[in-house]
Structures are given as C-alpha cells and as structure tokens.
Amino acid sequence: MGLMKCLFAVCLAALCSGTSLADVLSLKDGRMFDQVRLSQEEDGVIIHFENGDVRVPNDRIHEAVIPEAIYVPQNEEERKKIEQGFVRYEGEWMDPGRRDRQLKKKLEEQRETLEAMKRVREWRNRHMEETKNFAFESTVPIHVFESYRDLCETYFTEFCKMWKIKKPRGLEALPLRFYIDREKFMQITGMPRGVGGFFQFIPTALELHIFYDRLDARFTEEVMYHEVGHYLMKLIDVEFKYPHWPGEALSEYYGASTWDPVNKKLTWGLMNESRLAQIRNDISHDQRVSLKGMILGCQDRNFTDYSWGWSFVHMLLESSKYKKNFQKFFLALARGRDIDRVRQQYPNFQLKTVEGGEMLAAFMKYMKLKNDDDLAELEKEWYDYIDNELTISTSRGLESAAHRAYEQGREKKARRMWEEAIEGGTETALTFFRYANLLEEEDEHEKARENWRKAIEIDSVTPEFYIALGESLLFRSKKEEDKKEGRRLVGLALELEPDNYYLKKNAKRLLED
Amino acid sequence: MQAALARLGSVLIGCLFVASPVFASHEDSRIGYSVKPPKGWDQVPTKPNETYIVGKFKAGKKQFARNEELGYTYEYQQEMLVLLFLDDSLAPEIEVEGDEVHWEFNPYPDYDSFLKAIASGYYELADPVREDHNGLPVVKREFSAQDGTVRFVTWIFTLDVGEVAVHLTSTEDGFGKAKRDLYRALKSFKAIERTEDIDSLFAAKSFVSIFAMDDLDPEERKIRRQESERDAWARAQEGLPDGWSTLVHKEVPIITHADQKHAKKMADQVRAVLSWLDKAFPEIGEGEYVRTPILRICEDEDEYQSFQRSVSSSGSIEISTFKSTMGSTSMTWESINRGALARWFIDRDRDVYWALPPWLSQGLREMIGVAQPKGSKLDFPVKQWERDFIRYAKSGSITPCRELMSMPWDSYYTQGGDQAARMGESFALTRYFLEGPKKTRSILSDYLVNLRDVVHEFEEAEEARREKDGDKEAETEEEEEEMEAARRKRAEENRQRVLDETLERTFGSWTDRDWDSLEKAYLKSF
Q1: How far is B151 from chain A (nearest CA, A)?
Q2: What Å distances lie between residue A290 and A312, A375, A379, A391, CA to CA?
C-alpha cells in the first residue's frame, strides 16, 4: 500500500470530520492543493476555502494528507484505549508522541513528493526517462505520466507485431515530449491553440509533442494514439511519408484504441465515434466521399481522410477478407519495388511518397481489384458497412460532434446532441459546461445554471465552471443574493486557481460590489 | 553621418519627458524609473496603441542564431523592451464613443501574460529569484527557446505605479558574449522621482472606428476625421526616441528617423498619389474627407522590422516605412504608394474598395505600386516584368479582356493557376483603361460609377432584408442548416451579382463588335 493510501486509510477511518491547517491534497488528474484546510468525510475530502467548501470524491484523489484527523472509537475496547492515552494511527495503537513523530516524518515525505510534483511541471525540471523505444520528457505528474509511458511501449510492441516490422537499426529512442497542459504546450512548442499534438517527421529529428488535457483525458489518449501511430509508420521506412490517405486514416484507426493500465492491455479497432458522427453528419447532407476520389486525392489534405478514411481502413482491417491484402498494400507503399515513389523536397531534407494515380494503381493491384466496377463494388460495400455496421454507442461521439457543431454556428444541432449525450447518462463535466454556455446564450439562465452546477458536481475543482456560474448570477440576475453568490463563486474560483489567466484580468471587476 | 548622429543621439538620450543630465539613460519621469540600455543600442518608437511598451531598443549589430536540430542559421535582432504593467487602481476609465472602442492601456495583466502573447517556443530556465535591487523589489527571470536558439533575460521591478519589466534578448550562441552588457543594463535600473503626472500616459486613450463614423453625414464625418487626424498626430509624436524628428511637408505629417530630404521626397510621393487618386476617381466617395496618412520613416529596414514586430496592429492612419537605399523603384516606394491607395479608398468609399473585382483590385495595386512623381504629376513607368509580360501577350496567349473582366474570384485565383500572367493581364488592362485614349478612360469611370451604385444598392437591399427578417433565428436544426446554407449562397451570389450587374450596366449595350474593337485597341496598345 502506497504512502498516500496509508495516510488516507487513517482519514477514511475517521467517521467525524476534523480539520487542520496546511493540509495537502493531490488529485489523480495532476492538480494539487497545498497549504489548504481539509477535512475528511466518508466519501471524499472537503477543501475549506474562504469562499466556501469544495467536496472532492475519493475516486479522484491521488493523495490527501490531513494530519489532525480525529479518530472516533468504534467500540468499548477502543474507547478504553483512548482513555488510557493511546491514539490510533495506521491501524496501530500507540502513544501520541510516537504517532506525532511518525506523522511528522510522513508529512515531510508527502510534502517532498508534492514539491517534486510541482517542480516537474516546469520544463526546466522535466522528468526524463528513456525506455526501450521512447525518450520521454514530461512535465506531467509522475503518476499520470507512468500510465502513458506504459501505453506507448505496449503500443509500439503490438504495432510491430501486427505489421510484422522491426525498429530499423540505428533508430534511436523517439523523443516524446509530454506537456502538463495546453498553455504550456503552446508556449514551449510555439504551436497555435487549435493544435492538439504533433509529430515532427524530419528523419534526423523525429519528435512527438503532446499535452495532457486534464478535463478531457480521453482526448489526450486519442491524440497520443494518433501521433504515436504516425511515428510507428516511420518504422516501415523512416524516409517514406505516408500520404494523407491512408496515413491519417490508419492513425485514426489506432486513435480509437483503449488502454487498460492495470492489465497493460491495449485494444484497437474500436469505434471512433467522433469520426463516425462526422460521417453521419455528411450523410445527412447527402454527401458521401467517393472511394476513388479519396484514394486519388491522397495529397489534398482532405479533412474527410480522417473520418471517411478511418471508416474505410476500419472495414479493411476488421475484415478477414481484406486485412491481409490491405496490410500488404500499406507496407508496399513504402517498400514495394513495383511502386513508383516521388521525392518531396523540404528545406533541409527529402522524403519519398506516392502520388494519386500510382496510389490508386497500387491499391487496385494489392486489393485484387480488376477494374472500376470492382472498385465501385468495394465502395458500395464500404457504404453499407458505414450504414449498417458502424454504430455510435457511447456519448463520446455525440459530445465531440456537438462541440464541433457549436463551433460551426449550428447551435440547434449542438444543443440536440448535447441533450442526447446528457440523456444518455454522460458524466463528462465539460459537456454540461458547454451545454450550459449555450443555454446562457439563449437566455435560458436558470437551466444554464442548473447545468453548470451539474458540471461542478462532477468536477468540483475547475475554476472555469465557477466563473461561468458566478458571472451568470452577477450579470443575468437582478437579485442581490444572486449577485452576492456570484461574487462568492468567482472568489472561490480565484482560490482554486490564483494564477487563472481570465481572473487575473477580470477578478477586480467581478469581485467589486 | 546622419546615422552616426542618430546613434549619438540615442546615447545622449533622450528621456521621454524630462531633459536628463544622465548620459545613456532612458528615463521616464511619469513612471519614475531610469535604465541604461546596452551601449550602442538604439531606441525604436512604439506603435501608438502600444502604450504599455514604455521603451523599446534594438542592438546596433545583429547576431546569428543557429538551429542545430533543423540545421539552419538566421539573423537575429537583439531587443530590449521596458514594459509597464500598471497598477489597477491607476488604470484610466475608458470613455466609449460611437459603438466601438479599441483601447486598453495594457491588454496583459502581467509579464507572463505578455510573454505568452508575444513569444512562442520558450521555457523558464530557473526558478524566479526575488531580491531587492537599488532599493526596489525585483523578480529576476531567464527564459530559453525550446529549440535552443534564443534567450530572454527579464527583471521585473515593483514601483509605486505598478510593475516595470525590463526584457532583453540574445541568441543562445551569442549570450556568453552579450551577457555582461545585458546584465549591466538590468542592473542600471533605478527608481527616480516622478515629476510628471502619470495621466499623461493616457492622453490618447481611444479612437472611434471607421464603422462608428458610418451613421454621420459627410460633414459630421469630416469633422470627426479631422479630429481623429489631430489625435493620431498628437499620439504619434508622443515619446519619440532621440534622433527622430517631426515635420509636415505638403500637408503630410511625417515622423522620421531618416534625413529630412528623404522624408520630404517620400511625402511628395504620398501627396502625389493622393492627388492622382482624387483626379483619377472623382466619382468615388465624392465629398468624403480623406485623412492624410501620417508617414513614419524608420532609419533602416532593421529599425522598421523592430518597430513592426508587435502583438497588435497599429490601428492608426500611419504608413510605416524605412529609408530606401535601393532606388526609386524599390518595394519600399511601392508599399508607400499602396498604403496611400488603401487609405484614400477606405475614407472615400470602402465598400467600393472591398468590392473591386479581382482584375481591377490587383491591377490598381500593381499600377499604383510602380507610380513615381514627375513634377506635379504621377508617372507610371514600365518595369522589366511588364515588358516581359507584353512580349508574352504579343504571342497571343493573353486572356481576352471581356473574359478577364467577367472572371469570378474563384476562377481568377485558380483557373489555369498562372498567377504571374493573371497579374500582368490585370495590370495591363488597368493601365490601358487609365492611360489609354479618353474613350477608354471614360469606360473605367462608368464602370466604377456603376460598381459604386450596384454595391450601394446591394447594401441597401441587404439592410432591408435584414430589417424585414429581423433577428430571425432558426427554430429547428433543419432551418439552421438551411439558413446557414442560404447565407453562404447569398454571400457568394451577391458577390457574383455585383460583378455581373456592374458589367451589365457598363457594357450591356455593347455588341460583340464593340468588344472586338476594344480587344484590338487594347492589344495594339502593347
């Protein structure tokens, strides 16, 4: 049992709450609260801020140190022990002096661990670890990082097995830079906001850059599968650049994988619901991507290569009828002697690739398609596969499609999808938050507040949720008690994240009477 | 010599508001500090809306930065910025006039926010060090670019008016050598007595956007524009570094770090272009007052680049340029001409400017680009590339002018893909209309009058449609899709209809023979 859990066991054993100053709390998603006042309850920990209490459920807590938790005797025997001056600590009865010494030591260790976690958030103090195939540089809390590290190694091994390839001799461990959040990712890499991660494909300087999105850890995983997927394709031939189709499509195929960190098991070939939702949207507008066009247009950077391309690759790899031929085709693009490759010139290096006509010819050959009729038949099979075999079964795809629709100004559509996701039982705080933002825009303030409260219920330590609810009460309500509550919530957000960028600019305005 | 004097000037600075006996110091008696930039560094002016950058300097010599990973080298200009993060309690109240105000004393609450906005690809090298320096609390920080090319060293001082950050940059390779000078500059920072009112920092605190002037009548607009001209001129003259001077030549206000002779020559050019536009297009925005642009001339291209390097656009009526040493046909003169063209059209009738068909938009830009004053007139000499184009046109492979004039945007920019030829054709046709026989000149005049009328009619129709539809919102998803599709279609169609309708009104009565004769005369003009 880890250090945290030992201490935590003490806390959990307490039936009544006790509070203390300068407690520490770290969450599984990497957030930390030090020098706060905590109290333990059966199902979680309460952080006592000046502007109110915030409850954090046990399943989100990585470590909690509450040194002064009061133990309540469970029976007569325990009551006697307490009367004799003993205290209970970590399952043992001991004199208070010993307990204090042990507790002090543990607290020091805990603070050291937390300090290390804080330090590692800065790029200069990044955690560096070289595994068999990756050279990690990470500012993500170690306990979060470890799971991704294991995932990458497993992914590497399984990919090589599936494609029967080996790491080229001389290829060094891939530098994988893993940033604590989007802001730091943007700051350090210089990438604009819209980029979720990237793979630098310069043969002499291959690099992966990914950030950790604590509000949407699944997104982080998806990006990691996708971008690592690009790197793994490089194992086939470092100097070959897979064209947009099928390169992005295959990366999306892996993008929908799931990882079981306990059993270290990676499962791929799953439904990429975000992409499927985009396909369904295209179909609802009578837009279907032609198979020939997709293969021929491989250099056009079509966005549909991610969605429609994924569904086609999914069909081919999940079918015993096509899997082998598709794999041969895919490998042949980089290696086959029967395929003409062209050179792509970059400022300081060259890569090889295959262009549209040659790509189509190779596809026809390896997939054993004799003519356009065969291709049309395959296209029909693909459309049927999309219509009948691919289904959206979780709220993930809906949520993602809703967000995209909202960003494109399709508010009705976004609303419907968010509502479906919520009716389907989503537990994603971000979905409630985004849905509430839309409701607020549509002047449904009460309903919006209800959904922000729901977001807070799910994720009680995200300042943005408090700010949104607080601002709604401050500016959309005429009631004085609402305004007061609004200010309290903004104040609470500031306590949760004193460095919050928005609050730095606006706190004064929001908090004044 | 002028440059040497200018450099000497910056050494003798050159406080912003008080004459200082301290050599080599940059002082600000409103904020209450003085700092000595590294030796040989020159002060660079800031843009009028960059009020929070209270000092900007560039090194006299450039460094070379090497990106080892990607294997390339580039020239790097070292800079020193002095940034004021004003205490909230001193931040001015912003008056709102019209419907838009684009002014904020400092859009960044602190140095971190500023850095986030201006820099990318960097990280902090060490924990910030908090100390006292010359009796002031200071936070010392150091950053490095992730690619290992550049380093920033910043000390953030706390004064009674807020925080002042002194931010210096160097290449990583050159840091060892530059370090001493950079730290010497940082260590020179000290508080001085505030003898000026802090409020003078906020003298020009807002401007009314061009859109906010739309509801005024031309006479009222003229008054507002004249006010905004005066305001912009006052703002542009504030805090000028030493070595810079101001003058007005041919009613063109100039802020210059170049010699006055050169400045006047550039002003002559601006005036000549504006006058030519007045005469060439009297039908556009008749009676509208055109604000004379302020001409800002940097000493050289490096200074110009430093001035331009900014998070925000200038949001003013300035044309910024630098002293050209490349002769009168260089890009510098072209950009001045184009700046004047844009300024003139925006005040006369921006709707027409934005609705110009692709051939005329590009043709006019190219034509005005080559313009040079000749006496009291504007001359449009033929450049080598135009001669090459004429040779190409004579071979018969030119797009017929009727086709070029009817070409929609998408086709213009993609059809055939030969953008150089398209540019040549547009230039040639515009030149033919403007410099050809009287008859052809009147064709262009008619065309522009029709374009103006069509654009305004469409604007009115759109306005009426918006009023009729009100703020109609989609009730259902289907409606939402339909409305969005309709909006996109309408925008596309309107643009095309403006083009078609203008052509129809101008050339509707023309027969194929008329077009043939235009075509022949046009080709003959080559």
Answers
A1: 13
A2: 11, 10, 7, 21
Instruction: Please list, residue by residue across B253-291, b when 16 or more beta carbons sit within 10 angstroms of its beta carbon and e when fewer do.
Output: bbbbbbbeeebbbbbbbbbbbbbbbeebbebbbeebbbb
Q: How far apart (Å, rounded) are the C-alpha atoms in residues B236 and A340?
A: 61
Q: Measured between alpha carbons, how far is B126 from B337 in angstroms, rounded to an integer?
A: 49
The pLDDT tens digits of the residues spanning A316-343 come to: 999 999 999 999 999 999 999 999 999 8
A145 touches A136 (CB < 8 A): yes
* DSSP class per residue in B194-245: --S-GGGGGSS---B-TGGGTTS-HHHHHHHHHHHHHHHHHHHHTTPPTT-E
Q: Distance (Å, rounded) from C-alpha A236 to C-alpha A331?
A: 7
Q: Which of A205, A347, A504 sits opposite B113 (nearest CB)?
A: A504
Q: Find which of B146, B151, B152 to mutate to test the A interface (most A CBs within 10 Å of its CB).
A: B146
Q: Is residue B520 classed exposed, middle or buried when 0-12, 13-18 and 19+ CB atoms within 10 A define those classes?
A: exposed
Q: Please say whether the structural domain A127-389 has been given the CATH code 1.10.390.
A: yes
B516 shares contact with chain A (CB less than 8 Å): no
Distance separating alpha carbons of residues B204 and B234, to the nearest angstrom: 8
Q: pLDDT, tens digit, for every residue of A23-69?
A: 778 888 888 888 888 888 888 999 999 999 999 999 889 888 776 55
Is the reported ipTM for this assembly greater than 0.85?
A: no
A34-38, A240-244, B1-5, B196-200: which has the minimum mean pLDDT? B1-5
Q: B458 vs chain A: nearest CA distance in angstroms?
A: 25
Whether A409 contacts chain B with CB within 8 A:
yes
A241 SS3 class: coil
CA distance B83 to A506: 20
Contacts of A287 in chain B (CB under 8 A): none
Q: What angle do CA B191, B192, B194 make, to 5 degrees?
A: 120
Does pLDDT of B391 surpass 80? no
Interface touch B70/A205, C-beta < 8 Å: yes
Calculate mean pLDDT across residues B137-163.
93
Answer whether B70 sits within 8 Å of A504, measured CB to CB.
no
Give the residue on A whose Cα is nearest the Cα of B68. Answer: A205
pLDDT at B467: 82
Transcribe A87-124 into DSSP letters.
EEETTEEE-HHHHHHHHHHHHHHHHHHHHHHHHHTSGG
pLDDT digits (tens, 9 = 90+) for B216-238: 888 888 888 888 888 888 878 87
B window 73-132, beta carbon within 8 A of A: 88, 109-110, 113, 115-116, 119-127
Q: Label residue B255 by pLDDT band (50, 70, 90).
A: very high
Q: What's the rounded mean pLDDT across residues B252-278?
A: 93
Contact A190 B126 (CB under 8 A): no
To test the contact with chain A by mutation, choose from B122, B477, B478 the residue with the greatest count of A C-beta atoms within 10 A, namely B477
Backbone angles phi, psi at B48, to 5 degrees: -55, -30
Question: How far is B196 from B368, CA to CA, in rounded Å?
Answer: 46
Residue extents of the structural domains in chain A: 3-120, 127-389, 404-511
Phi, psi of A22 (to 5 degrees): 55, 45
Q: CA A285 to CA A287: how far, in whole Å?
A: 5
Q: Residue B124 is nearest to which of A124, A413, A505, comparing CB atoms?
A: A124
- In chain B, residues with a C-beta closer than 8 Å to the C-beta of A411 are 474, 480
Looking at domain B2-202, its CATH superfamily turns out to be Mog1/PsbP, alpha/beta/alpha sandwich (3.40.1000.10)
Cβ distance A205 to B479 less than 8 Å, yes or no, reads: no
pLDDT of amino acid B524:
84
Among partner residues A124, A187, A413, which is closest to B126 by beta-carbon distance? Answer: A124
CATH topology for the A404-511 domain: 1.25.40
